[in-house]
Amino acid sequence: MPPFLKGKVIFFVTSNIHKFNEARRILREYKISTAMLKNVDAVEVQDDDIENVAKANAIDAVRKCKLSIVVEDTGLFIKALKDFPGPYSSFVHRTIGNDGILRLMENITDRSARFKSIVAFLDPLIAKPFCFTGEAQGKIIKEKRGSREFGFDPIFVPSNSTETFAEMSIEEKNQHSHRALAFRKFAKWYSQISGLQKS
Ligand code: ITT
Fold first, then answer.
1. Which atom in ligand 1 lies closest to the alpha carbon of residue 73?
2. Is the pTM of this model over 0.85?
């Protein structure tokens, strides 16, 4: 086991409490201690590929805080809109929001969409970030549903479900979500290299 990883807390660098709450539950299953680190003042990298965004954010965060960190970048890719908003999801959600997306999709019958998450792990003693990907296929419904108001959750129903992510508890969402898949891949890898065992 790389000795520098043993017993370390992993800091999730994010300003988004929903993302942290979902990830924390996954990491807890693997006995990985985590804490939220916000206000790192990381550069806002913009790139058409969310993996490049996650890698650049990870490198910048480690340079600034010199800790073992993960960052995660997510995009919503809507097929009929040629994968819009994709890497621009944060901006689009802040500006036109869910109502704007629903308006763009009026009269569109193919409602397929997917979320894609990239988790990037980096430590000051590691040369390059390690990346883990998770995807959730589903569709955009016609009206918002659900009380858990996180991002596009009220308009997205994952495959094999009739509920939107916003109608699910965090535990239920974690059975289907892009973020849960990416963090589980990360947690398995991290447990292996650091000798941790799942509870
Ligand atoms: P960071 O500080 O971690 O960058 P962020 O909110 O900017 O937080 P992302 O860039 O990963 O996070 O996500 C872009 C936007 O996509 C985000 O602001 C939400 O509106 C939306 N989003 C991300 N994950 C989501 C999820 O699981 N369900 C619904 N919407 C999500």
1. 11
2. yes
